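Example record for the data management plan.
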Amino acid sequence: MVKYNIVLAHERAGNHFLMESINSNFIVGKWEKPHEMFDASRDLARYDVAIHVVRNGLDNLTAMYYWLSWQPANKNKFKNLTFSQYLKGIPGAGKSKGKDPIKYWCDFADSYYGNVYTVRYEDLYRSPIKVLTNIEEKFNLERRHEDIVPLNKLVGHGPRKGIIGDYKNHFSDEDLEYFWYKAKETMNRFGYYRHGSGLELRGIHENI
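Corresponding structural encoding:
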């Protein structure tokens, strides 16, 4: 009998990194990876592993900007579009479908809060053994080898693969104020707090 797992994540949030981290350490089945908001009608109980990956909105939206502008179908839309303009929304770009990308990121993350086991991308990157051990215990997984071995490289498709703190190279002071005005509640809900011009991840006590 084929086993199935599911990872649910906003685009560019780290779903491939999580899947490869699990695949390399545990014996698991096939993966589904929809970039869709939480749907109560989806029967998550039928999956052996069901995980939501969240990435801080600052880096996630920075990655989205490059991901969308990198796609041939969006070249004209993004040719003269600044990052600040992107944050305010552009019709037809990505799954946000013309909404304010910040609001879409918040709505997406909030839809999973309290509904699905959640892993923060930054925790997986910086404390992989701890995170993978927690996943192992949560889903009663069988190891491939005696010790858990973190991936020695980031995994993903397209430009700027999983850079942590990349937002600092793109967000202006005005952009940061706009972002935190829109996303503070959601960011805090997942343990992301403003720390001056940086970001504090509560739970692992690191600033990025």
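Summary line stored alongside the record: The first strand starts at residue 4 and ends at 9.
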